[in-house]
Amino acid sequence: MSVFQDLLKEEIKRLSELKKKYEKEIVSFPKGTLSKKIRNGKPYLYLAYREKDKVKFEYVGKEDSEKVQIIKELIVKRQDINQKLKQVNKELNELLKSVHE
Amino acid sequence: MNNNQTIFEELLNLLHEKDVLRHIILIGSWCLPIYRVYFNNAPEVPILRTMDLDILVPTKLNISNTIDVPSILKSIGFDETFSHLTGHSKYVHPEMEVEFMVAEYGKGKKEPYTIKPFNVLAQGLRYMSLVMEHSITVTYKGIPVCVPDPKAFVFLKFLVSTKRKDSLKREKDLKTAAELGDFLMMRSDQRSKLKSVFSSMHKNWQKTLLRVLSEQSNPLLDVLIKKKT
């Protein structure tokens, strides 16, 4: 087997492991985005996410609360992992295609 | 196992046996499988490597007798050739190519550098003092192998990318550096020391590195320019 094919197989294995890792990691983060609602003139934040065909709003807290800050950070992290997962999927698909060609 | 992986391990074993390995630092993409082991097989560590195995020979070698490295390489099927451009020696195997490097300072020179204790002609390379100042020893398949500290490796890849004329090689350098850098930033033990390695670098190198990171919109930039609070 050629060096190139060996490397290709090795990279496919690595990317598959990475994909599994990201997929496992991503479910531990809150899904959805933060949505602001004004109640009696004051802003309150809700976690908005889709469940089946409905959008659900889960109360998080006041805009300046610690809980909101934590959720914001977690959402940024989830988006980052999501981005990486997309990239891994893209590379993996390209490699798998080239193996089967 | 891959053929060139077998050759790589055979070569490491032999260089270790002949007391060469402890004097040299492995640089280039073959450090990646070593990092994979160092980081407990983390899949985030990229592993794509070229056929070129680059070996850095430190400026001050503490060896009393000459060790004939070319004959060691020849014993496992490497042929000695010489670069047409620089005259440095290359050891070519169907699965791999070995080259020796030394740190180049100042204006540099066109001729190869003679490494008498190893009987090889090496190529001068920029930024190598960074590697010599920041290296680690990793036990790989039972053999102690000296490689650049992964933080220095990431910085080096970004810096070297600015010198590349081949756009494919430049892209590969940037991709490897970005992937490994990203992984290091996620690890608290590595992230906390990124800045100290950066601070130890020559001011001009720091500027070049920050410029590349900015061009690449790499999040490492924030870590390096963030002031201590």
Short description:
The complex is a heterodimer of chains A (101) and B (229). Chain A is an alpha+beta fold and 101 residues long. Chain A has helices spanning 3-26, 66-100, and strands at 33-39, 42-51, 54-62.
Description of the molecule:
The complex is a heterodimer of chains A (101) and B (229). Chain A is an alpha+beta fold and 101 residues long. Chain A has one domain (3-100). Chain A has 2 helices and 3 strands; from the N terminus they run αβββα. Chain A has helices at 3-26, 66-100; strands at residues 33-39, 42-51, 54-62. Chain A has a 3-stranded antiparallel β-sheet with strand order 1-2-3, covered by helices on one side. In chain A, helix 1 packs antiparallel against helix 2. Chain B has 2 domains: 1-148, no CATH class; 150-229. Chain B is built from 9 helices and 9 strands. In chain B, strands 1, 2, 3, 4, 5, 6 and 7 form a 7-stranded mixed β-sheet that branches. Chain B has a two-stranded antiparallel sheet with strand order 8-9. The model of chain B has no long low-confidence stretch (mean pLDDT 93). The chains are: A alpha+beta (101), B alpha+beta (229). Chain A binds chain B through residues 1, 3, 6-7, 10-11, 14-15, 17-18, 21, 84, and chain B through 2-5, 43-44, 46-49, 51, 95, 182.
Give the SSE map:
The complex is a heterodimer of chains A (101) and B (229).
Chain A: H1 3-26, E1 33-39, E2 42-51, E3 54-62, H2 66-100
Antiparallel strand pairs in A: 1-2, 2-3
Helix pairs in contact in A: 1-2
Chain B: H1 3-17, E1 25-27, H2 31-38, E2 52-56, H3 69-75, E3 79-82, E4 89-93, E5 96-103, E6 113-115, E7 120-125, H4 128-133, E8 135-140, E9 143-148, H5 150-161, H6 167-186, H7 188-199, H8 203-215, H9 220-225
Helix pairs in contact in B: 5-6
Question: Which descriptors would you attach to this protein?
Answer:
heterodimer; A: 101 residues; alpha+beta; 3-stranded antiparallel sheet; 2 helices; 3 strands; B: 229 residues; 2 domains; 7-stranded mixed sheet; two-stranded antiparallel sheet; 9 helices; 9 strands; globular
